[in-house]
């Protein structure tokens, strides 16, 4: 068999795994780009010593635990407190301006998606940590498609492990212990920080926009989304913002060409934009 037709068979088998995910796993693979799906599936195959996609599909059919592990791998929820610290440093002045402009009317923030909550909690902590921001009038709505991520977010308990150093993640704060209660390697977000954040399940591709947001975070989701869904997702973000509101993207994400006129970079390196519409 030629190499090209072997590769063709492997592609077909990958599609059979993706079809299986679509039918049997509570995840919508159609939203995500194939390169991303292929990488996540390959990582699970390596973990389970499956030599090819056909073998892995058989494994998925008979092994409940592997279906759960694959779902976990597909809904990547890598995150962190103050992920990309340069962005958070630049965000301080945006938050100060919004706090000064809006006064008692308050600052409405959307963290979409929020994963295990460290992004919205970072914002809540920053608001309290900065003397020029009136944190009493900051309100954050944090959403994610994953119920498991939202449960972790509501609990607000994080642990330092071999790969995650929570103390280091909280370093941008002047007094981290004012915001988390620490017991050895376990960090519990304090009630005052939680009080500014509410969590809700949300599918950013199909659930449509919010409205009147002053600041929207959509970081590290667009990179996984199939190009067909990027523009509609962006419309959801845009329509959620009030005129003059701010949008923050992930470090490697950009505004689609068709919408660049509507988003003026405030800090290009940090991917903070102002909506001019
Ligand atoms: C890599 S995390 C990003 C978290 C955070 N914004 C950050 O940058 O650290 C991606 C999150 O997107 C969520 N997600 C994936 N598809 C989604 C969708 N259609 N609607 C809402 N959330 C989604 C996943 O569950 C995951 O928690």
Shape: globular
CATH class group of the largest domain: Alpha Beta
User: Taking all residues together, what is the mean pLDDT?
Assistant: 92
Distance between the termini: 57 Å
For the record, the CATH architecture of the largest domain stands as 3-Layer(aba) Sandwich
Instruction: Supply Rg.
Output: 21 Å
Bound molecules: S-adenosylmethionine
Q: Please, how many domains?
A: 2
Class per helix and strand makeup: alpha/beta
Q: How much helix is in the residues?
A: 40-55%
Helices and strands, in N-to-C order? HHHHHEHEHEHEEHEEHEEE
User: If you consult CATH, what is the topology of the largest domain?
Assistant: Rossmann fold
Task: State which percent range the strand residues make up.
Answer: 15-25%
Number of strands: 10
Key structural traits:
277 residues; alpha/beta; Rossmann fold; 7-stranded mixed β-sheet; 3-stranded antiparallel β-sheet; 10 strands
Walk me through the structure.
With 277 residues, the protein is an alpha/beta fold. It folds into two domains: 3-74, no CATH class; 85-275, 3-Layer(aba) Sandwich (Rossmann fold). The protein has helices spanning 3-24, 34-47, 53-62, 64-74, 85-102, 118-129, 147-155, 166-169, 191-194, 227-240, and strands at residues 107-111, 138-144, 157-159, 180-183, 186-189, 197-201, 213-218, 241-249, 263-267, 272-275. The strands form two sheets. Strands 6-2-1-7-8-10-9 form a seven-stranded mixed β-sheet. Strand 9 (263-267) and strand 10 (272-275) form a beta hairpin. Helix 1 runs parallel beside helix 3 (53-62) and helix 2 (34-47) packs across helix 4 (64-74). The longest helix is centred in the first third of the chain and has 22 residues, at 3-24. It is globular. The mean pLDDT is 92. The site of S-adenosylmethionine (SAM) has 22 residues, from loops. Residues 31, 75-79, 83, 113, 115, 119, 144-146, 149, 202-205, 219-221, 250 line the site of S-adenosylmethionine.
